[in-house]
Amino acid sequence: MIHGHYILCCIPRGAGGVRHFFGGTPEVPEKLTQALHNRFPSLNVVGAYSPPFRAVTLPEDEEIVAMINAAAPDIVWVGLSTPKQEKWMHAHRDRLRVPVLIGVGAAFDINSGLKLQAPRWMREHGLEWLFRLVQEPRRLWRRYIVYGAQFVFYVALELLGVKKPD
């Protein structure tokens, strides 16, 4: 788990410190904000937003960008799951006036108390993926079983010198 004190590396910025903006799946950014404020009362969260669970329209997208820019965060933390969060950050990087965009995957769900984290022994042995797969098999099986196997196959090809990286 990425604990709040690791997530919130604070680079001083005036009296309020680093300005954070949390974005993610419905209700998660708001619950995360409350959980982190309970642990870190001086945390400077300037916004939290959960997009609708559907594709947003162009006017809605422009409103989201305007809202984030108006909040003037130093860091936007995006918890939309992989690869959706990476695609969103890539598509919006030139329109946002934010120095740092960070995709956090399930860290928001875990830190807000909505999902359990793997036991320490599983984390220490690289098995957190298995714990998550058992919790959400219908959602994660393809990511971990199919795409994971493809990744290992392509790495093996590169190590054997059969295929060069693109």
Structure overview:
The chain folds into two domains: 4-115, 3-Layer(aba) Sandwich (Rossmann fold); 118-166. The protein starts with a helix and ends in a 7-residue tail after the last helix. It is 48% helix and 11% strand. It is globular. It is α/β, with parallel strands linked by helices. Strand 3 (75-79), helix 4 and strand 4 form a beta-alpha-beta unit. It has eight helices and four strands, in the order H-E-H-E-H-E-H-E-H-H-H-H. The chain has helices at 4-7, 28-39, 58-71, 84-92, 107-111, 120-124, 128-135, 137-159; strands at residues 20-24, 45-49, 75-79, 100-103. Helix 7 packs antiparallel against helix 8 (137-159). Strands 2-1-3-4 form a four-stranded parallel β-sheet, with helices on both faces.
Q: Which properties best describe this structure?
A:
4 strands; 2 domains; 166 residues; disordered N terminus; Rossmann fold; 4-stranded parallel β-sheet; single chain; alpha/beta
Taking strands numbered 1, 2, ... along the chain, how are they ordered across the largest sheet? 2-1-3-4
Query: Which class of secondary structure composition applies to the elements?
Result: alpha/beta
- What do we call the CATH topology of the largest domain? Rossmann fold
Our Rg estimate from Cα atoms comes to 18 Å
Please report the distance between the alpha carbons of the first and last residues. Answer: 32 Å
Number of helices: 8
**Which architecture of the largest domain does the CATH hierarchy give at level 2?**
3-Layer(aba) Sandwich
Helix content: 40-55%
Query: How many beta strands in the DSSP annotation?
Result: 4
CATH C-level of the largest domain = Alpha Beta
Broad shape: globular
Number of domains: 2
Q: Could you tell me the strand content as a percent range?
A: 5-15%
Query: Could you report the average pLDDT, rounded to the nearest whole number?
Result: 83
N-to-C series of helices and strands: HEHEHEHEHHHH
